[in-house]
Amino acid sequence: VMSGLKRKSWGDVIGSSAVLALAQLNNEKAFNALKKLTKYGYPARIRELAAKSLGSAGKGKPEVVDLLLGLTYDKYVMVQLNAVATLGELGDERAIKRLKEITEGHYESRVKRTALESIKKIQPWIETDLKTSDLTEKIEELKMENAEIRKKAKK
């Protein structure tokens, strides 16, 4: 598998397949290789897939969340996108603060949208809370309208 990472191919197809194979191995050596592959110096596509694969290869390891949080600041948007998506899949509450920052101030809409989706995966009740607050506002509006109609009806 590791030799596939060194082979040159169009669009890094061979290297990408090697990264995906590493993720399937689910052992410490594969996990360490994936961590290394997220670093600058490797082709962007390889780094992107390594970020995505860390979720399955590093499940249960506390350092994975820290590594992925660091990758959300990467220069390459697709690495950021995959790191954000993987944080959602891991479901670790420690990612919420950074994910909220991304939803409020990131320049790329795909990353913002993925951050919001990840927050919803980690805290599924948020969407329910948002809907409830919308309904509460609507009820208050209807109460005010009703009061106005009753006032007019009394005249």
Report a brief summary of the structure.
This protein has 155 residues and is mainly alpha-helical. 77% of the residues lie in helices and 0% in strands.
Structure description:
The chain is mostly helical and 155 residues long. Helix content is 77%, strand content 0%. The protein has nine helices and no strands. Helix 3 packs antiparallel against helix 4. The chain is elongated, with a radius of gyration of 22 Å. The model has no long low-confidence stretch (mean pLDDT 84).
Task: Supply Rg.
Answer: 22 Å
Shape: elongated
How much of the sequence lies in strands comes to: under 5%
Mean pLDDT: 84
List strands and helices in order, with pairings.
Blueprint: H1 2-6, H2 13-25, H3 28-37, H4 44-57, H5 62-71, H6 77-90, H7 96-105, H8 109-122, H9 125-154
Features:
155 residues; mainly alpha; elongated
